[in-house]
């Protein structure tokens, strides 16, 4: 998609325009060359010119803005270095500075964080978020990581096999996922089962894995139920308090700063670190994963079931 | 404690190593012998005087002139042609690659006959050339064409490989940064492929200097006209072995120089992207 916007790939159909300027129109026979479009493309592995210094790399897009951009991205001291001598984070800043040197109308970032190791990734993500907010430039980011999307984007489009499944804010995707794939992308737990509408509103869902839960929304037939990890609470057996409760055995606890990821059967719960200590959670322990009926979000199953015709 | 069997394997291993070393020694001796003989048999003190003989000077002039022209032509045509083949996918691309490589495996004598059949008086283009008043066979241009035919594939083939090795993301990046196709070629593809282009050129140059078979058939061996150094060796051989040896020494020195520059280019090429030593040493490019 980014390559199509930049003019590096010719789509079979469709139209690409920036405001009034048409860059590509399959029907109108318009196809502007990449250098006649105004995009700043940050490639996945950054694609810095290995034979040019950092300064020459940035100046390639536009010599006039290069000194200012080198300052701004804190890479002026690296100006004479070659890209091969830089760290991943530094390379990304050079790539961004180079893409901006042309003063583009659109910024395109192709998996800007995938080339980084986990430690650098979080820092660079925060840095990138600050830069993007400051730039106030239309930006398209492609990522496979929901956390990157959540940190960087105002609007997120979920594309599967070239088809747009859902377009909305991060909140939309979490609260009102369009289908099971979106649920998986946001990192939510997906349960499958068969729903029966209840007389007083809502539905009762018989889960495939055993157990019955209630949803606040009406539903019937084969459905998926999405539950966010941070909305799952863990309780000792017998302490469900009328909430939906699924019993399971803890298989893994991964501390992550203030919070901990706890795997209970097929579910992942994200709970405060304090709760782990208070309940004395440990692998092998039998617990209940509980959540409100309102937190059970019913979604259509995107994959056709075996009985579908 | 090693078992009986492993001792035997060990002994067999030693024997095999010795066999390999022996084979290598024999090969090296055979390959080095003619070079050593050339140097020892040639009257080294007399070499400068022998090379000053008129026939040798003429042959040297013909060799330099024809090779310079042929090299200019294949660099000028071969570089853009190779870039085209390397960066595009089109129908018949495999056929193009095969055609480019065909002269590499063709016997030079066959190349000579082919050139004669194409450009000779009764040849494919002979009549048209005659009408235009162009006579090619047995002229200096015939030498140029012969060199071009046998040597240019060496350059074009390496140039295609060198351009193919340039990461397409880099040329794509240049395009999105506002560079035209031509500027992308000049500023990104060409410098990044330079090592491979240089290596290909060195090979093609060496092949051109050594050209014999196609030239003698298509251009003949006319002193001061089409007689290159290699052809001169063949002609002088009977009358003055010493002069032939002297030319041989000259060509050995030249070939060694070519080989050395090829090795240096290859070493430089493999270090351009990774060597940390280039940090700070490389001249900074400033506007």
Shape of chain B: globular
User: Which percent bin holds the helix content of chain A?
Assistant: 10-25%
Gross CATH architecture of chain B: Orthogonal Bundle
The averaged pLDDT of chain A comes out at 86
Helix/strand-derived category of chain B reads mainly alpha
Largest sheet of chain A: 5 strands, antiparallel
The radius of gyration over CA of chain A amounts to 24 Å
Q: Give the DSSP E fraction of chain B (strand runs of 2 or more residues).
A: under 5%
Number of helices of chain A: 9
Oligomer: heterodimer
- Give the tally of structural domains of chain A: 2
Please provide the ordered H/E string of secondary-structure elements of chain A. Answer: HEEEEHHHEHEHEEHHEEEEEEEEHEE
Taken together, the total number of domains of chain B comes to: 1
β-strand number of chain B: 0
Distance between the termini of chain A: 32 Å
Looking at CATH, which topology of the largest domain in chain A would you report? Rossmann fold
Rounded mean pLDDT of chain B is 88
Major beta-sheet overview of chain B: none
Written account of the structure:
The complex is a heterodimer of chains A (309) and B (287). With 309 residues, chain A is α+β, with helices and mostly antiparallel strands. Chain A has helices at residues 2-6, 54-61, 66-72, 88-100, 118-135, 146-152, 170-175, 180-185, 273-279; strands spanning 15-18, 21-25, 30-31, 39-42, 106-110, 139-142, 156-160, 163-168, 189-197, 203-207, 212-215, 221-227, 233-235, 244-256, 259-264, 267-272, 286-291, 297-299. Chain A folds into 2 domains: 38-154, 3-Layer(aba) Sandwich (Rossmann fold); 189-299, RNA polymerase II/Efflux pump adaptor protein, barrel-sandwich hybrid domain (OB fold (Dihydrolipoamide Acetyltransferase, E2P), Beta Barrel). Chain A is 25% helix and 31% strand. Residues 304-309 of chain A have low confidence and may be disordered. Chain B has a single domain, classed as MetI-like fold (Orthogonal Bundle). The interface between A and B is medium-sized, with 39 and 29 residues.
């Amino acid at each position: 998609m980014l390559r199509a916007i930049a003019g590096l790939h010719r789509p079979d159909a469709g139209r690409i325009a920036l405001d009034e300027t048409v860059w590509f129109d399959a029907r109108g026979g318009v196809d502007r060359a990449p250098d006649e479009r105004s995009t700043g493309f940050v490639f996945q592995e950054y694609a810095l010119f290995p034979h040019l210094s950092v300064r020459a790399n940035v100046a390639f897009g536009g010599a006039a803005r290069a000194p200012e951009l080198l300052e701004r991205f804190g890479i002026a001291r690296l100006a004479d270095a070659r890209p091969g001598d830089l760290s991943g984070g530094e390379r990304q800043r050079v790539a961004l500075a180079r893409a901006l040197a042309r003063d583009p109308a659109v910024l395109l970032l192709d998996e800007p964080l995938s080339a980084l190791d986990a430690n650098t990734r979080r820092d660079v993500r925060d840095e990138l978020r600050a830069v993007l907010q400051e730039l106030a430039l239309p930006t398209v980011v492609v990522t496979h990581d929901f956390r990157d999307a959540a940190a960087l984007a105002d609007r997120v489009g979920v594309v599967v096999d070239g088809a747009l499944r859902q377009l909305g804010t991060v909140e939309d995707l979490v609260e009102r996922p369009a289908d099971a794939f979106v649920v998986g992308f946001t990192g939510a737990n997906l349960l499958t089962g068969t729903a029966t509408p209840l007389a007083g509103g809502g539905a009762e869902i018989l889960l495939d894995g055993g157990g019955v839960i209630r949803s606040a929304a009406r539903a019937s037939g084969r459905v998926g139920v999405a539950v966010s990890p941070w909305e799952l609470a863990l309780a000792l057996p017998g302490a469900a308090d009328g909430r939906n409760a699924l019993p399971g055995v803890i298989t893994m606890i991964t501390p992550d700063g203030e919070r901990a990821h706890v795997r209970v059967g097929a579910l992942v719960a994200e709970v405060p670190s304090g709760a782990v200590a208070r309940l004395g959670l440990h692998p092998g322990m039998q617990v209940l994963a509980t959540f409100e009926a309102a937190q059970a979000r019913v979604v259509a199953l995107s994959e056709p079931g075996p009985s579908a015709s | 404690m090693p078992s009986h069997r492993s001792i035997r394997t060990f002994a067999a291993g030693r024997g095999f190593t010795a066999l390999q070393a022996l084979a290598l020694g024999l090969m090296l001796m055979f390959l080095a012998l003619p070079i050593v003989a050339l140097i020892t048999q040639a009257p080294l003190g007399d070499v400068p005087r022998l090379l000053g003989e008129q026939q040798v000077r003429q042959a040297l002039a013909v060799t330099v002139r024809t090779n310079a022209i042929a090299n200019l032509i294949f660099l000028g045509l071969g570089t853009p042609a190779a870039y085209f083949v390397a960066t595009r996918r089109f129908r018949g691309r495999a056929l193009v690659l095969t055609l480019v490589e065909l002269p590499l495996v063709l016997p030079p004598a066959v190349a000579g006959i082919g050139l004669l059949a194409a450009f000779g008086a009764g040849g494919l283009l002979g009549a048209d050339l005659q009408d235009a008043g162009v006579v090619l066979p047995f002229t200096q241009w015939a030498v140029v064409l012969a060199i071009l035919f046998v040597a240019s594939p060496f350059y074009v083939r390496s140039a295609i490989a060198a351009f193919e090795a340039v990461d397409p993301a880099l040329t794509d990046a240049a395009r999105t940064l506002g560079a035209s196709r031509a500027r992308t070629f000049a500023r990104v593809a060409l410098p990044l492929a330079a090592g491979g282009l240089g290596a290909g050129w060195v090979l093609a140059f060496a092949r051109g200097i050594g050209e014999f078979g196609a030239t003698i058939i298509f251009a003949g061996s006319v002193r001061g006209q089409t007689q290159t150094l290699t052809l001169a060796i063949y002609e002088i051989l009977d009358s003055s072995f010493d002069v032939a040896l002297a030319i041989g020494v000259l060509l050995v020195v030249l070939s060694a120089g070519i080989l050395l520059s090829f090795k240096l280019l290859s070493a430089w090429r493999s270090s351009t992207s990774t060597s940390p030593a280039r940090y700070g040493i490389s001249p900074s490019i400033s506007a």
